[in-house]
Amino acid sequence: MDDPNEPELDVVGDNPNIVGKTMLVRYLLVIVMGGLILTQSGCQIFRRTGTGAAPIPTQFDRLPTQQQLLASLKAKSSSVRQLNSRVTIAMPGAPKIKGTLQVEFPDRMRMKAGVMGASEMGVDVGSNAQEFWIWSKAHLPGQPPAFYHANHAAFARSPIRKSIPLEPKWLIEAIGLPGFSPTDVHYGPTSTPDGRMKLFTVHQTDSGRQTRVTLLSPGSGLVEQQAIYDANNRLIAYSNTTNYRNYPDQNLSLPQTIELNMAQPDGKMMKIKVDLGKFSVNSLYGDPNKMWTKPTPPGGVQNIDLTQVSNQGRATIPTRSRQTPSGSQ
Fold this sequence. Notes:
By secondary structure, this protein is mostly beta strands.
């Protein structure tokens, strides 16, 4: 059965092939997705608003101009400096883990989660202005504990970057607060047959041109889907953001459910559903020197600088056995 929430593969071209090059890419995507975006397994009925929450306000009574829509999206994104939430992660073939997620826009993020909330049996994923890291602490078959890290600028120039066309920052923007560069070129918005708004954005990255197709609700202007295509119009990833909760004090609505889909080397989409707790907005507490500083793993943990990994990377990066996520098309 086709997934009704999957974007049309020909919206920016006529090549429906899906990106995927090496086992290394799949391994990293599993870890990054599990660390940055969190979910609860099982089928769910998507809702536009949180149950019992304040109603989502209407922003547009007709199709806005491009200037009006971009101004609205910028206002929403700029109103959020920090986010904090409890999270639960369920990935195919792995035990459910729980933890916390902190985000400080535009590039600081920290997620710690583990079995029964014990991060020693889970992951520590983070990013600051200079570097990012992915620490897989659990010892699983074929996947010993490992600490992956890289300087942002060096990673952008590294050989392995060509095998990972998706920018890490996009995973933060999947929360429903997309950011746009002044050099981006936009087309639209236009109306879709089901009444939603569609905005095309062409963006230049270190790995080449990318096109983002954003679907938004017609009245509230909330982001419902973001799909990323590479220069050859191949689908890299897409996210569905639903079940929005309104935060009247911040004049902001944020999703409680996120579904992240990313291409695997075998051509299938890896799908992870996301449930987030109630957000604490602009009120992070803690020592920033600890929160946003790359940790130092103990001896015995593989320490891998991704900028030193070749484009193939099979010899140095441990891989897990192939598993097909439930519901993959």
